């Protein structure tokens, strides 16, 4: 009997998406390689690493080495500066909301990830949101850096990406967990939801910024929950990411420690799905 095929969907959630690393490590330890990958925002970036053939251990080492050194982060952040005086003086005069997401992705992307979809080992689908078209856009060919930049273009931090006449912004606005794209591509679809939710602090009333960020999480939660009720994935993994800020990347090691239980949870869930498919043994990579 042939081994069931597996596809992986990685959701959006900013720094909460570092928990995806545990799931990728679990897939490695089970001896599996996905036949297809989809992702939104940080999930698209992590998915690009997976689709490029990177192992979870490699992604973990890259993330922790990059974000544990503030000097390294500042050096990479400097690469995101405007390329010319004309660009610096055009649009908003503040950097916040005017950061070029493609330049940001390129500054932090590991060298193992190619610049085109066609060079990936595994097919990848990247989700972005067509702002004026009010719809999700699936990108699966051409310029990978452009697609990742569009998928991660969180409004109020990054400016939209202009592609084919569309103003593309963060894919999570329309679809935070794009597993439905994979349901006809594999026997088992693994979906990882890292949207999370607001966590109550000592104060009983959130600040304006906390309320805005939390409201966004609650809306994405509602959309994902409804979709999962109608057409659920075979495996749904929800790491414990409540309370982690969307931009908490400098806390990478703490986030990985706080979400460490995700790896064993993922291994058990995926192994059970394999058992239910009639084959509990995973072939070696």
The poorly predicted ranges are: 280-285
Give helix % range: 25-40%
Beta content: 5-15%
How is the main sheet built?
A: 8 strands, mixed
Instruction: Work out the helix count.
Output: 10
Total number of strands? 10
> What does the average pLDDT come to?
89
| SS class | alpha/beta
What is the radius of gyration? 18 Å
How far apart lie the N and C ends? 17 Å
Q: What would your notes on this structure say?
A:
The chain has 285 residues and is of the alpha/beta class. 38% of the residues lie in helices and 15% in strands. It is built from ten helices and ten strands. It has helices at 20-29, 42-51, 56-67, 70-78, 85-89, 101-108, 144-151, 208-230, 252-258, 261-276, and strands at 6-10, 36-40, 99-100, 124-130, 135-139, 158-159, 161-163, 166-170, 188-192, 235-237. The chain starts with 5 loop residues before the first strand and ends in a 9-residue tail after the last helix.
Q: Brief overview, please?
A:
With 285 residues, the protein is of the alpha/beta class. It has ten helices and ten strands.
Characteristic key phrases:
285 residues; alpha/beta; eight-stranded mixed sheet; two-stranded parallel ribbon; 38% helix; 15% strand; disordered C terminus
């Amino acid at each position: 009997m042939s081994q069931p095929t597996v596809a992986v969907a990685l959701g959006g959630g900013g720094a909460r998406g570092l928990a995806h690393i545990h799931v990728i490590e679990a897939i490695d330890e089970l001896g599996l390689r996905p036949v297809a990958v989809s992702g939104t925002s940080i999930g698209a970036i992590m998915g690009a690493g997976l689709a490029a053939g990177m192992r979870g251990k490699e992604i973990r080492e890259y993330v922790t080495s990059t974000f544990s050194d503030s000097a390294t982060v500042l050096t990479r952040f400097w690469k995101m500066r405007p390329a010319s005086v004309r660009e610096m003086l055009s649009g908003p005069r503040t950097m916040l909301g005017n950061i070029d997401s493609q330049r940001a992705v390129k500054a932090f992307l590991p060298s193992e990830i190619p610049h085109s979809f066609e060079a990936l080992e595994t097919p990848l689908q990247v989700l972005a949101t067509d702002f004026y078209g009010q719809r999700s856009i699936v990108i699966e060919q051409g310029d990978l850096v452009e697609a990742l930049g569009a998928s991660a273009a969180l409004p109020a931090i990054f400016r939209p990406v202009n592609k084919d006449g569309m103003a593309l912004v963060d894919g999570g606005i329309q679809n935070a967990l794009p597993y439905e794209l994979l349901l006809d591509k594999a026997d088992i679809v693994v979906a990882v939801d890292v949207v999370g939710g607001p966590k109550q602090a000592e104060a009983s009333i959130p600040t304006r910024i906390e309320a805005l960020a939390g409201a966004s999480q609650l809306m994405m939660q509602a959309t994902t929950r409804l979709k999962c009720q109608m057409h659920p994935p075979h495996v749904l993994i929800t790491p414990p990411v409540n309370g982690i800020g969307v931009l908490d990347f400098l806390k990478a090691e703490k986030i990985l420690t706080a979400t460490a239980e995700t790896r064993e949870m993922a291994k058990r869930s995926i192994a059970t799905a394999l058992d239910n498919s009639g084959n509990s043994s995973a072939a070696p990579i």
